[in-house]
Amino acid sequence: MSGQMEARQSAMLASMSDVPERWLTTSARDKHGTLGAPVTRMDGALKVGGRARFAAEVPLDGLTYAAVAFSTIAKGRIAALDTTAAESAPGVVLVMDYRNAPRLKLPPVMFSAPKAGAQSSLPVMQDEQIHWNGQPVAVVLAETQEQADHAVSLLRISYEAAPAVISFGAAQQNARTPEKILREPTSVAIGDAEAALAGAAFKIDLNYRTPRHNHNAIELHAATAVWQGDRLTLHDASQMVNMTSWTIAEMFGLKEAQVHVHSPYVGGGFGGKCLWTHQILTAAAARLAGRPVRLTLSREGVFRAVGGRTTTEQRVALGAKADGTLAALIHTGVAAMTTHNNCPEQFTFPARHLYAADTIKVTQQVADMNMIANTFMRGPGESVGTFALECALDELAEALQLDPIELRRRLEPEKDPTSGKAFSARHLVEAYQRGAARFGWEKRSAKPGARREGEWLLGMGVATATYPYYRQPGGAARIRLTADGRAFVQMASHEMGMGTATVQAQHAAARLGLPLDHVVFEYGDTDLPPGTLAGGSSQTASISVAIIAATQALTEELLRLAGNESPLAGLSADEVETSDGGLRAIAEPDRFESYASILGRAKRDDISAMAEAPPPSEVQTYSMHSYGVQFCEVKVNEVTGEVRVSRFLGSFDCGRILNAKTATSQFKGGIIMGLGLALMEDALFDERSGRIMNPSLAEYHVPVHMDVPEIEVMWTGIPDPKAPLGAHGIGEIGITGVGAAVANAVYNATGRRIRELPITLDKLL
Amino acid sequence: MTPFTYARAQDAQTAIQLAGAAPAARYLGGGTNLVDLMRETIETPDALVDVTGLSQAIEARDDGSILIGAAVKNTALAAHRAVRQHFPLLSRAILAGASGQIRNMATVGGNILQRTRCLYFYDDAARCNKRSPGAGCDAREGFNRMNAILGASDACSATHPSDMCVALAALDATLHLAGAEGTRRIKLVELHRLPDDQPDIETILRPHELITAVELPALPFAARSTYRKVRDRASYAFALVSAAAALDVAADGTIRDVRLALGGVAPKPWRAFKAEAMLRGAPATAAAFRTAAEAELAEAVGLSGNSFKIELAKRVITATLTELAGGVA
Ligand SMILES: Cc1cc2nc3c(=O)[nH]c(=O)nc-3n(C[C@H](O)[C@H](O)[C@H](O)COP(=O)(O)OP(=O)(O)OC[C@H]3O[C@@H](n4cnc5c(N)ncnc54)[C@H](O)[C@@H]3O)c2cc1C
Asked: pTM of the predicted model, to two decimals?
């Protein structure tokens, strides 16, 4: 890192005046702590050694195994369901269907209440109605998985089909405008953008299409449920343990405290490991059988019963003046959704914050279909929204005969273009400059099709990446300090392989002035203080703030306990800082007492303190976003149309990076998923049946190693002065912009604009 | 999966006897295809006769021919020295297929008899004439991007997905068969049937007839041969179009002999007899290759989602042969 950059970074840290000072780690702590260092994931050895027990691996006495039957029609009712043969098959304990399933209340769908976590509000196996092709219609429990799998094939089910909405085109005829897009207004209008577009000197007006994607984490969705009286323990693979607990409690008529959710390891989340029907069915079947139940969805089951990214059709229109500045920016479109979920795929979000324009129009609609409820999937909205917007900018740059990076520089806004708020931190132009230098952007030929190696045409493309900074309201952390100077930091948060537990241990160690190996971060269990959902790249900020609050509370407790005999006697919490395994007076560094000494004098084994995170007021005041630039080089085979990505660089601006190693993995993982989005991912939804026809990893393509070139990532590392630790969550931003960077590179290589994902070779022949 | 019995045979005779004793017995090779289909309850054998104990020998003979035991693993065949030297197209075809792990399990016999990957064949909620004769075909108007453009019928457009077989077809491989009625030999290109109105009958094998070996006749000019596979990702994907080719060009630039077979385009490994006949004696030029490709695909018919394969196949043939001729496409 350049000296100049370091100076920028410390200046930024020093300027964090209007956020609580405690949100920073002080410079002394920075010096001694490991924040930012490439610390290896603490759960790595456990996982590599096979010692981490996932939800489908919990050993239990008397366990039964479940297999699920899925509907084969998209709408209608079950006409007959004959369980006789299945029930008499070897090892079968019972068959559950809508006739004998425990009565459950309707699932509280996400956003309908603060802790509502269901992905759909449809009843779960309570009646004979069918709402999508793939809906679970029966669960077979048996003594072994094989017996259950066999018995489920013996169920005889017939249906009475009703007309279903399974064509996106037809559904768009009845598209509706939802009240809100997540928590944002559905439409934003600044001036008359259509009129400005009509009168613009340069204009483009284009449509883009993106397909359905399915969640395909390597760990299959699984749950193990045990009832003890009216108490349920659910071993889940979850990115929202508290919401799962509350929602299941509501459905079963229990108190939240009666539903204990345990989820220490999650083999990939990406938005897919929320509350679907399989966990509810596991709990219901365990109740019915009076025995513990394990339900692991097959890979096909994941396609049938877990939603993914929905399909979109988007319009981007840009009107520009001769100097490249925008007279009009329009981004509209429609996404497929259902009447029973609330996930409109916020593809217009990037256009609300990225570029300056005289007039702006963004709005989006949903088209209701009979399909598995769609859901959040890494970079929801932004991943496909940036595809449309950033491809359109590339087309505009060409129309203006401007370098695409120069065009974006000219569009850099001073404040948020739609909300008018000040940016908390934004160094996108810098990320462009540094990335371009590193990638060798100057080697790009402005004219398409100009570079060739044998049969292969070479091209370069670029696109902006962006994702909002979110912090979820709620959440609390408890810190327990023991007499031997160890800290146990507890919060029901989630580690799905991102590195959260490691990073928060680093954070807590720095904050408490302890060595890293003296800190244990405990998470993934509803017996701990409540966490927030791990989604929207929000967890890092949410946990950090709770730990900061808990440290403050702990400091107060420690001072109380230290009493009058302590060198710290008489000092308030604001007058001390944590350091070297104890507390030190800020003004008089010689006044120090270690935690061990404080606890020892009080004859205490441990001390703990818990505090809630303050509400996320920072996002009310500022426009807070992460940024990045995706640079891509592709080779396109002139004979066959095959596209191979040959080089990739992501240059990010996401505040301060808390762990260089886990951050690199997150960025790279997002980019790889983005290559899949650009080139191959496509859940084939048969519009005659509403059925996904490629529910297997053999036919649903994600990138294999040979599809992934060497990927470089870099970052500005400039802290966001308004965010806790100066940091942003970074799980999602890596996938955004990748689709456009690849498409723009394909254009640069071939002169062909592909406006419909994925970019398969037939589109280039 | 439906319950079944399992027995292992060490020789062909025992295998045939064991299979004959159960009405719906199946031979089990590496199981990488059969077991998948059993999990989907598309195949429901009552007995499995494991034939991986049969010959795993690869015998390179002095006359340049090679005899390959049916239980030889795909990986072993691709790695064999004589194969790599004399029949490089075969090594390349095998290595272009599936993944390292699958090739380690898969046998030569199983690879030849693997079944189609048509999406509607794999989903028992869909209509499929191959699975349920007379039921109809949902692929015709559905997702048929991977389906056949040559040799298909109204009843079925499923492709044979093997890469290895494309090379075997080009090499004029002979299969050694054994069954209740004794042993016989057939050409690989005669094994698979075109679907016509009976897509459920995929080969000319008699009930429980076993493949015991594959024989490659000597073909000196196959030392100059290759396999080119076009697919939707860089590895681990079935062919959209593939070509196995060997070329023998005389000093004057005319083609003395040529072998050409296509994959991903037909219900069977497609030997391009028409193109071969046109090319023998013709100049080894890109123009001649393109003309031959046009002729071979003259009768190709595209469906809603796979018409692009017609032009793609022509290009792949032209480029592959041009490369073998030492030129640039
Ligand atoms: C994810 C995935 C990707 C794949 N990708 C490719 C690819 O890109 N290219 C490609 O070519 N292949 C691909 N394959 C297919 C793979 O090559 C086949 O599954 C494999 O070759 C089958 O061999 P096996 O020994 O496992 O056969 P099995 O599954 O054991 O048997 C297949 C069939 O052959 C019969 N059989 C086996 N041995 C004999 C015998 N000696 N005599 C008579 N009948 C016999 C069996 O009864 C069965 O009907 C892929 C497979 C998978 C699962």
From this structure: 0.97
